[in-house]
Amino acid sequence: MTALAGTRELTRLAMRRDRIMLPVWVYLIVIMAASTVSSTKGLYPDTASRVKLAANTNDTPALVALYGRVYDPTSLGAVSMLKLNVFGALAAAALSIVLVVRHTRADEETGRLELVGATAVGRRAPLTSALSVVLSTNVMIAVLCALALTIAGLPAAGSTAAGLAWGGVGVAFGAITAVVAQLTSHARTATGYSFAILGAFYLVRALGDTSDADGPRWLSWLSPIGWGQQFRPYAGNRWWVLLVMVVFAAVMTVVAYSLVSRRDIGAGILPDRDGPATASPRLAGAVSLWWRLQRGSVLGWAIAFLVLGAVLGGIATNVGSIADSRQAHDMITKLGGEKGITDAFLATEMGFAAIFAAAFGVQAVGRLRAEETGQRAEPVLATAVSRWRWASGPVLVALLGSAVMLLLSGAVSGAVYAGQSGDGAQFGRLVGASLVQVPAAWVVIGAVVLGYGLVPRFTAAGWAVLVAFLLIGELGPLLKLPHWIMDVSPFAHTPKLPGTSWSATPLVWMTAIAAVLVGAGLWTFRRRDVTA
């Protein structure tokens, strides 16, 4: 038996397990690409408007840090890729991280790989299978995105470069995660470290892009995300950058394979740190235990919201020049409000912050199912801890944490905007604009809690619900969808602040609905079997 025996069978099994997640994720990336190109055509129909947008973007450090630079202001494709360059790469990278951890470290942690390894399966087969899935998925992303961009009316060469850039970034981060999965002992740790590396590379790329011509712009070349942008689709099409990605992925893969042979199944190269012999009094309750388990995740999300708030506050003073065309003005107004283009922009971005806060809540509640399937719930519930107390921990973390995240982003963006504009009143306005988003995020969290109580294996469907709400909010006004469809999303009922008059009635109703959903979810959990 060779070290790769059973790879094909494991790959087929992994594809079957991901038969729903992969098509949905890839489809969303493709739709994002095609819809962005279509909207850019309408917003910036002539060369003059695109040149002005590119100039304003490249002269605004906050926008360059967020999206990167526009390398050919006359090209519709280059302008369309302003957001897609980064967001497409991040989406592909995130998917690769999830896939590698899911089919390596997570399977080891649950004991599935130990059972599989007792059969005619080689030592390196699970890792090879995971990397095969990642490679085929990113090839699919590259091909379908290239076709979608070409069909949308962009040049085929540039579209191919854009697809290869996203797929290359995904493969690179899949290889990085393969190494991280060998170093750590737990799936949660591997995922956290991998996303931390993704965030670090994003910041390195931002530092390089925002540097002066005589500054350290070379930092962008230290980041796989920077490599994706250096493809420069529709602005030169640097095909040779693909070679950099392939070499990097190959080196990281070799490192991962060498580490596989140096550790035991279920263990990591890095030893687990021993905890204190005596537990702190702060761990005396179920809620305290949940906080201890999720504090690292909360801190990571909090940092992300702080950065988001700083970027939004920095961009706010330049919105007038960025949205100079009538079409761009109308789009932002439709999405965000009616009074003032800057207020409309801020209202739109606060809506996105609410989506991110809901994503944090979905992840926090998802820990319930992870602890249950990992058989860590039963030992706790065998003590004097009731089901209600045990399950309420992550729910409280999700509800309170999402509110704190929005408060952080609103406070930081308000402080930055007030400092740049000299108007101190902007701080309170943006704090209020962020807090009115909380009930909508709570409704999404309540829906996930109810799903966990009723059909726990569908807890992950909360991500699908969140994505559906996101697409309704993003594409609804542009596609002129019927109001009854747009009203399905709780984010459609949030006041568009700052800049418009508002009523507290929808906030009260959404808070009540969230409370009912959470209560029903906890009640149904008490009446079903654990791990059912």
UniProtKB/TrEMBL annotation:
<feature type="transmembrane region" description="Helical">
    <location>
        <begin position="82"/>
        <end position="101"/>
    </location>
</feature>
<feature type="transmembrane region" description="Helical">
    <location>
        <begin position="133"/>
        <end position="157"/>
    </location>
</feature>
<feature type="transmembrane region" description="Helical">
    <location>
        <begin position="190"/>
        <end position="208"/>
    </location>
</feature>
<feature type="transmembrane region" description="Helical">
    <location>
        <begin position="462"/>
        <end position="486"/>
    </location>
</feature>
<feature type="transmembrane region" description="Helical">
    <location>
        <begin position="430"/>
        <end position="455"/>
    </location>
</feature>
<keyword id="KW-1133">Transmembrane helix</keyword>
<keyword id="KW-0472">Membrane</keyword>
<feature type="transmembrane region" description="Helical">
    <location>
        <begin position="20"/>
        <end position="37"/>
    </location>
</feature>
<feature type="transmembrane region" description="Helical">
    <location>
        <begin position="239"/>
        <end position="260"/>
    </location>
</feature>
<feature type="transmembrane region" description="Helical">
    <location>
        <begin position="163"/>
        <end position="183"/>
    </location>
</feature>
<protein>
    <submittedName>
        <fullName>ABC transporter permease</fullName>
    </submittedName>
</protein>
<feature type="transmembrane region" description="Helical">
    <location>
        <begin position="344"/>
        <end position="366"/>
    </location>
</feature>
<feature type="transmembrane region" description="Helical">
    <location>
        <begin position="298"/>
        <end position="316"/>
    </location>
</feature>
<feature type="transmembrane region" description="Helical">
    <location>
        <begin position="506"/>
        <end position="525"/>
    </location>
</feature>
<keyword id="KW-0812">Transmembrane</keyword>
<feature type="transmembrane region" description="Helical">
    <location>
        <begin position="395"/>
        <end position="418"/>
    </location>
</feature>
